[in-house]
Amino acid sequence: LEVPLIRALGFDADDTLWHNEDHFAATEDAFADLLSRWATPEDAKEALLATETQNLELFGYGVKSFTLSMIEAAMELSGGAIEASDLVMLLERGKAMLARPAELLPGVEQVLSELAKHYFLIVITKGDLHHQERKVQMSGVAHFFNAIEVISEKDPNSYARLLDRHNIIPSEFVMIGNSVKSDVLPVVHLGGIGVHIPYTFTWAHEHAHPDHELHTRNVDGARYWELDSIREVPELVQRLAGS
Ligand SMILES: [Mg+2]
Predict the structure, then answer these.
(1) Ligand 1 centre and the CA of 116: distance in Å?
(2) N or C: where does the chain have the smaller number of CB atoms within 10 Å of the terminal CB?
(3) Tens digits of per-residue pLDDT, 193-227?
(4) Distance from the CA of 84 to the center of ligand 1, in angstroms?
(5) Residues 6 or more apart from 212 whose CB is under 8 A from it?
(6) How many angstroms separate the alpha carbon of residue 24 from the centre of ligand 1?
(7) What is the C-alpha to C-alpha distance for residues 38 and 50, in angstroms, rounded to an integer?
(8) Apex CA 170: angle with CA 165 and CA 176, to 5°?
(9) How far is the CA of 167 from the centre of ligand 1 (A)?
(10) Are 178 and 15 in contact (CB under 8 A)?
(11) How far apart are CA 63 and CA 42, in angstroms?
(12) In angstroms, what is the span from residue 130 Cα to ligand 1's centroid?
């Protein structure tokens, strides 16, 4: 039986190490409230998403892009009638999201401190360089990581370049994250090991399998692991290493 050698672990940041999506959802609700004179909450949110998607190529990911898209969508939805003071409020919401310290998910600190003793750990996140670096630095877990990588897109090429830079062979690399598309599939396609931890599951890890069985999934021929919580990562890594 061939047992893979595991040398390095990559962790996605947003919704893997700390809460993120719920902050966006709260701001989207505030946006819809502000636009309620001109649109139903559903239409307001849909218009915002359409503006964000349209701007993605020019702005990239992140809170600053999201804030600009809120302002643009607000002007469009209101036909230019929205008050400047309301636009300032949207700016303030964006700034509050940027200023907010990272709120770690349960188990993150303990798991990282355990894994840092044995493995090369990398944060791999996409989005705005300044904000992402700041969040990592303010998270209280930065010292567990050997490297922090903020990339503009999580595709196989970006992962390949990044691993090459750190002299890591894909087969010795495990990537852990909440997005199958960004965190798991590109790494599996390179020959690495993908671990999916859905964000919503982390809210209710009481729902973990009663027998605590680690299990894999298959999507488009790609096989990867699916866990209920980051707390299961050390056990999985041990099993992969055959110990
Ligand atoms: Mg994420």
Answers:
(1) 21
(2) N
(3) 999 999 974 444 444 444 456 788 887 778 899 99
(4) 33
(5) 232
(6) 13
(7) 17
(8) 95
(9) 24
(10) yes
(11) 21
(12) 17
Question: For residues 50-62, b (16+ Cβ closer than 10 Å) or e, as one string?
Answer: ebbeebeeebebb
- Distance from Cα 136 to the centre of ligand 1, integer Å: 13
| Residue 82: count of CB within 10 angstroms of its CB | 20
pTM score, whole prediction: 0.86
Interatomic CA distance for residues 32 and 48, integer angstroms: 9
| 198 Cα: distance to centroid of ligand 1 (angstroms) | 9
* Torsion-angle region of 80 (φ positive above 0: left; ψ -120 to 50: alpha; else: beta): left
Q: Supply 180's token pair.
A: 């199958």
Distance 15 CA to ligand 1 centre (A): 5
For residue 198, what are its two tokens? 């859905």
In this structure, is the dihedral angle defined by the CA atoms of residues 97, 98, 103 and 105, taken in order, positive or negative?
positive
* pLDDT one-digit tens code per residue, 112-168: 999 999 999 999 999 888 999 999 999 999 999 999 999 988 999 999 999 999 999
